[in-house]
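Hi P.,

Sorry for the delay on this. The queue was packed all week, but I finally got your sequence through. Input first:
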Amino acid sequence: MIVITAPTSTIGRRLVDDLLDRGAPLRLVVRDASRLAPEVRERVEIVEGSHSETAVIDRACEGAAAVFWLAPGEPAAPTAEAAYLDFTRPACEAFARHGVERVVGISALGRGTPMAGQAGLVTASLAMDDLIAASGVAYRAVICPSFMHNLLHQVGAIKAQGMFSMMADPDLKSPTVATRDIAATAARLLLDDAWEGSGQVACLGPEDLSPNEMAQIISEVLGTGVSYRQTPGAALKERLTGFGTTDAMAQAMVDMFDAKNQGLDNAEPRTAESTTPTTFRQWCEEVLKPAVTA
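Then the structure:
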């Protein structure tokens, strides 16, 4: 039995489909089972509730060989540590109590870099990895740069204004990754019972691009001019808190992007194993363009 947390997330939804296609027995932990597709509900076990709750994750882990772990990074959390470490502690106890053999978690690049200790959400994610590994379970952190998928939040601005914005340095080349490739990596690890101990597996995409280069590719795919504008950290924080994000979580987001602008995501070497297949242009053609033209 494989337990999947956050099965309605962008990664989780794809992961569930991948594993069901391979005939894996799944138990999904979901706050609202009605959000699952009917064809998925018919083929899985369901534990309803938050995977941060002791009773819920304890019930989910009973008899499980492997767990996919994704902490959602709740914007209303009082601190980044609460969002990742406190959220994960009940699960670590459940892993040990039920003898779970393997856990695959979603985390971030940056371990071992000078910026890692002051990188906000990334710092908390790396601490979460250490917490899970310390539980004694075999653990693999799937470490990722920024997701291509994040641009879907800016479809409105791309359509109405011909632009998108982030905190990223406009000329800094960095990796990005498609969430479907993250899900494929997680599926491979969850189905492989040969690995032991703790470690990390990077998903870097096939290329490094700057935001200005991304804007050029988007323009070519859409057939219309799209530009990039860098958002100052203070403006990003103000926007996030305006949407209800706590001050601490908004600051953790700003700190993360500050660290990325200092090269946090560029320290991990791209290897054959860490090079995922989906290019940014392919993702724009297959995902972004349909969203913009819908």
